[in-house]
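--- STAGE predict ---
source: upstream dedup step, 1 unique chain passed
mode: sequence only
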Amino acid sequence: MGRNSKKSRPEGAANVPAKPEPATGTGRNRRTADPGPAQGTDSIRITVDLTRQDYQRMKKVVDDLARLSDIPTLPHSQMWRAVLRRLDRSPRLRAELADDIVADRDAPSDRPPGR
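--- STAGE serialize ---
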């Protein structure tokens, strides 16, 4: 693909289409409420390893939020951005989350080390 092409790939990247976002199974969709990052902004992709149980828990939360907000398909990324905004505005919620993190750290875990 050319240098000025909208879909240019980094040098050495495989010629494989992008994977759809797990929440929708269809990638970005005009019917979702998530416009994604503003065009021209730098976005940073993160990867999180979850146990199957944690993934199912997250999926249930996303599905419940989609139903409650009357959004047919709610991308996981939109849920995470809303969580970050809420944590940014709520020191009490951050403190509660910190307590949960400490409790998780101190409890025996079935997760591999470093995860």
